[in-house]
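[audit] Reproducing an earlier prediction to check determinism. Same input, same settings, fresh worker. If the tokens differ from the archived copy the diff job will pick it up downstream; this log only records the rerun itself.
[audit] input (395 residues):
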Amino acid sequence: MRDLVGPRYVHPGVPIHVTPSFLQEVQEMTLPLRPANRIDASVDTSAPYAFLIPDLSLFTPTTATTPPHTICMELKPKWGFKPIRDHPHISTDTAVKSTTCRYCMHQYLKASDGAVKHISEYCPLDLYSGDPDRVQRALQAMFMHPQNNLKIYIDGELSFTGGLGGRQASNHASLDELDSKLAAILQVAPHSSPETLPPTVSGVIHAIHSILGQEPVLHNLQTAQMMDVYDVGGIIHLFNRAVQERMFDGDDVTDLRFVALKGSPSVVPVASGHGEASLQDKDKPPIAPPAHIHPSLQNMPRGEVLRTLQCFLSAATAKDCSVMIALRPLAASEVPGPSMTVVRSPVGLLEYRVGVVDLDSRPASLIPHYFKIDQDIVSAYKKYLGDQGPKQCKE
């Protein structure tokens, strides 16, 4: 993933030895910070090693002076593309996926489940578009309904997010409170603004907007996401083939090491991951896909099946990672150094740093889940639409 996303954005980490007591302490410290849907997730306290990575929500001081104030935005952009029309592996029942993007459809499943109270106007395709007006609209929509797509850290402490991000759903009052905190750090005098959002928040959005225009990080993520060329509707067939034809190493797909095929030296093993599915009955597919199987899948060579599954899982990682953008206000007397990356904005001159996190390999055992959630999302969206036409998400 480091090569796909860009080496400058990914910190591989340093392996360190850890003890069960340390990991138990980490578990207890992080549990209150987890969103409701992640309460059941736990730290593996038996792991002998962990990776030490820098805290991307903070700037490391370059001198022995007081650490600089840092404002960090964590963006979870989500899917930046739609499948093409008349995709060979998308059935007529799910053809709406070529019109309305995955995120916008998913909102209606979340609303029906009670996970969100309001439908967000954020559309990932706006953020990835590169069009200044659309990118601005996407960032503003994130602030209005952050859900789990936006988190703001001030000096490393979570200060603003949505109900799915581990805090109570944000509202206009919390936006005003955030604006006051930002104004104090950026030393901006309070003033009124005709904008929908508070003035300092709008200034920070302007800075983030400029940074995303300067950096290729979203383009790199979108390119990685588009490695999913068969859609999960085709991938589920390949997964079932891999199960039935014993392409996995051993009886457990939670260990995502594919069997190296004789005569296929180009097959690249995929890193191990964690999951729940097992292959106790290899002759029975773990989930029933649509009856029609496209000949290109049925006749695909085994080595190509494994490479295609690997590409899909890499794309899945890119669809669900987070972009961390840390900002440090520069004093009026401070001259930017040659190694600094800076941006000018309505709230002053800011040094910035961009990183991408949550790039863990996805295990093949998740593919049946991806297929099911895809079906559920489309079903919920079509139920909401009734006789209405679908939303046209513009790429």
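[audit] rerun output stored. Observation attached for the diff report: Strands lie at 14-17, 49-52, 71-75, 150-154, 157-161, 322-329, 342-345, 348-357.
[audit] end
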